[in-house]
Amino acid sequence: MKILSGGDILLDGQVQTGLAVVFDETIRSILSIDEAKRLDGQHIPYKGILLPGFIDIHIHGASGADAMDATFESLDTIARTITRSGTTSFLATTMTMEEGHIIRSLENVRRFMEKQTAGAQCLGVHLEGPFIHPDYRGAHDENYIQRPSRRWIDPFLDIIKVITLAPEMDEGHRFIKEMKDQVVLSLGHSGATYEEASESFRSGIRHVTHCFNGLSGLHHRDPGAAGAALTQPVSIDMITDLIHVHPDLFSLVIRQKGADKFIAITDATRAAFCGDGTYDMGGRRMIVKDSVCRLEDGTLAGSTHRMDQAFKNIKDHTDCSLPELSQMLSTSAATLLGIDHQKGHIKEGYDADLVVLEDYKVTDVFVRGEKQ
Predict the structure, then answer these.
(1) 267 assigned to active site
(2) What is the pLDDT of residues 26-45, one digit of tens each?
(3) Looking at 267, 308, 351, 353, which residue is catalytic?
C-alpha cells in the first residue's frame, strides 16, 4: 500500500489541500493527512498538484517505435516512454496501409494488452484509416484507402475502441448504423459538407478526429465538416502543438464545445521524444525539422507532441481552470471511451493512474499504482 501526501489534490472538480491518497492498484481511500500518518505503508511525499493520469486517444508512436511496427517491443517502448509526459493510458493508433499489415498490427496490440507489464496502459486501438476520403488523406497512403466495411474488423472489436472514417465514403451510412453501438465512430479525414456531417452524427458518429485537420474547412456560407463539429452535440479532439491549430482558436473552440467535449491529443509519431531527422511513417518517408513532421511533399504528418506540452499549451493560451485542463486531458477521454467509472478521476475504487505536476511539469507518475 502507498500513501501520497503533501501537495494539493484535484478532487471532485476542486483543488483541495490537507488530504492523502491511499492506493495499491486502485485508490483505496482519500483521508486527512493526520489519518494517513497512522497507516502502515509506503509514505510518498510530493509537492505541486495531484491529477488523474492523462489519456491519449490518438498516438502512433514515440522514441523510434510505431504501432504499425506490429511488434511487442515497439508497443512496449511507446508505453514506457509516454509516461514521462504524464500519460497513463493510450490507444495504439494505426495508419492506412496494406490490409494484411493493419491486421498484423491489431493482432500485436491484442497480444501486448494480454502481456503488458509496464508503462502507460494500452486500452486498445484507434483505427485511423483506411476508411477515409482520398482528397483528405493527409499523410495516409492513398493506395490502401477502402470504403468502410466490417469484413476484416469484426474479429478485433474487442480491442478496437475508436474508428475514424469519412462518412461520405459509407453509402447510406450502413456501416455507421451497424457499428454505432459497438465502437466509438469518429468523423475524420473527410470532405463531408456541413449537411453530410450533420446527418452522419444523426446516424451514429459521435466524435470528430483532430478538429480542423483533415476536414472540409469552416466558411461562413459553407460551414463544412469543421463547422458541423463545432455546432453539433458531438465531442472533438485537437492536436494542441501550436502547429496544427492556431492557439488563438483554443479558447473559441473550448468555449463552444465545453471542456467535457474537448479532448487534447498528440497524434505523435515515432519521432516523438527524439530529435530532428528522417523517419518512416506508415511506409512513407517523414522528415522532422524543428520538431515539425512532414512528408517529402510538405504535408503535415502527425507530430512530436506530448501530453505535458498539451497541458502547458492550453494553459498558456486560454483562461481554462485547472479542473478544466484535467477534464480535457483525462476525464473527457475516459467518458468518450466509456471507462469514466474506472479512469479519469481521483476517487475510491478507481485505477490508481496518477500524475504529479510541480510548476506544471511532470514529476511523478503512477500507472495502476506502480511508479513509472
Answers:
(1) yes
(2) 999 999 999 999 999 999 99
(3) 267
